[in-house]
Design goal:
By secondary structure, the chain is an alpha+beta fold. It has seven helices and four strands. The N terminus is likely disordered. This is UBC core domain-containing protein.
Length: about 230
């Protein structure tokens, strides 16, 4: 009997390591939940982002460009947070092929370190990254960078503006063609508007109108509840 008990014994330090892991994961989930809730206070127009229900460390987003060289672009991206966030920054890549100095032309990886050379927990947040992702398509200073993932794009902007503009137009056109092409596990999926969607829209129009705060609060509660269901199930 004593031998059987010894065989089933689990080292105490194993529980300690597991406890540290669970505590770390709990802190990460709370941190990302809080940051996501705060996003609505900043009203970052033209940017939509939604975490995965089964993994809050993955956020899918889309940037809608309203003016400038990339006007009309529908650029999809993904943010992946490390387990030690916010001590270390997330990684960002664009699912849409985009001609831009800070975006790798083959992998779609975004050069976050070019702007956040020394990421600081408590100073840099997700909202800062989202603002940057939006600004790189509007501010000329980002078009001429030559020490990032696509230096050729930065060089072209400074030496052949018309060529750069033409490549931007191509990027926008491709993003529109791929608007309904969704990654299988994406939390944000675009679908063509159908009769079914029209019926849903008509039903929503006939419901009593809620205030904006009620709408946001309802969505927030649903999303947080779904995360917790997946986390503890």
């Amino acid at each position: 009997m004593e031998k059987a008990d010894k065989e089933n014994e689990v080292p105490l330090d194993g529980y300690g390591a597991l406890g540290d892991l669970l505590e770390s994961n709990h802190k990460l989930v709370n941190c990302l939940e809080t940051e996501y809730k705060l996003l609505r206070k900043f009203h970052l127009s033209g940017v939509v982002v939604l975490p995965h229900l089964d993994d809050i460390k993955i956020w899918d987003g889309t940037i809608f460009i309203k003016q400038g060289l990339y006007k009309g672009g529908i650029f999809k991206f993904r943010m992946t947070f490390p387990v030690d966030y916010p001590s270390k920054p997330p990684k960002v890549y664009f699912a849409t092929s985009i001609y831009h100095p800070m975006i790798h032309k083959e992998t779609g990886d975004f050069d976050l370190k070019h702007h956040f050379k020394d990421w600081e927990s408590g100073k840099n947040y997700t909202i800062n990254i989202l603002k940057l992702l939006k600004n790189i398509f509007y501010v000329n200073d980002y078009f001429c960078i030559q020490d990032s993932y696509n230096p050729d794009a930065g060089y072209t902007f400074g030496t052949n503006y018309n060529e750069y503009r033409s490549r931007c137009v191509e990027s926008v056109a491709e993003s529109k063609r791929e608007k309904y092409v969704n990654e299988e596990d994406s939390s944000l999926k675009f679908e063509e508007f159908t009769d079914f969607h029209q019926k849903l829209l008509d039903n929503l129009k006939n419901r009593p109108e809620k205030t904006d705060n009620e709408k946001v609060e309802g969505f927030k509660n649903w999303l947080i509840g779904a995360w917790k269901d997946n986390l503890y199930s």
